[in-house]
Amino acid sequence: MRLLLMSNSIAPGRGYLEHAHEVLTETLGGVGAVTFIPFALKDHDAYTEIIATGLRPLGVKVIGAHTAKPADLVRRAEAVFVGGGNTFRLVQALYRTGLMEIIKARVADGLPYIGSSAGTNVAGPTMRTTNDMPIVQPPSFETLNLVPVQINPHYIDPPPDRVHMGETREERLLQFLEENDVPVVGLREGTWLERSDAKLTLGGIDAGARLFQRGAEPRDISPGTDLSHLLSTRPRFDATDRAR
Predict the structure, then answer these.
(1) Is residue 225 part of a domain?
(2) Angstrom distances, CA of residue 41 to CA of 15, 66, 242
(3) Catalytic amino acids?
(4) Which of 5, 23, 101, 234 has the greatest number of CB atoms lying within 10 Å of its CB?
(5) How do residues 160-175 score in pLDDT, each as one tens digit?
(6) How many helices (H) and strands (E) does the chain have?
(7) To the nearest whole number, what is the mean pLDDT of the chain?
């Protein structure tokens, strides 16, 4: 398995995907063309062109999955990139086009997978830790399960002054763990998870990530941290205290 699961596609002061050029080059080694899944946004042509521009410095061609039958394009793909946007819209489209099972099978056979934002959300067992509004209703919350942990891209730390009176991201993820027993990796901007077969590593900028586990205090983790032990996780959903 070759996975690159990014929190975001753009960093302040940098061009699209520029902050991740080095790790993208490693992930796409030997790949001439990437099949891009643009379904998390409405304008598929415009989104595909943005990704094509971002990957052009790496010498990689980008093929939009919407330009032909998506299932056929992914079956023939050298690599797949699932872009960000609204996770509910993306999951609905992955089920509608049959790509949920096709991507899962192809990645298990070694197809490189790149995700950003919503595309990273769907790499976990479910989409339950997305930040997005449910603008459409997918047939299921179950997703690709390429890693057995939940991911929360764009993780934001609680504001120090607490002017905002709503729930913080940390509070929401702790509430998730009250009902479910599965680790959650909160990826701050500019960070990513890399999986190479049985190895899982946190990469990116110094901001790092925050790890949430049921029954433990949330803790910060630094880039370069080996998280391979999380790959042995056996997620339990709807696992309330009463069920235990």
Answers:
(1) no
(2) 20, 12, 39
(3) 117, 132, 154
(4) 5
(5) 776 666 789 999 999 9
(6) 7, 11
(7) 94
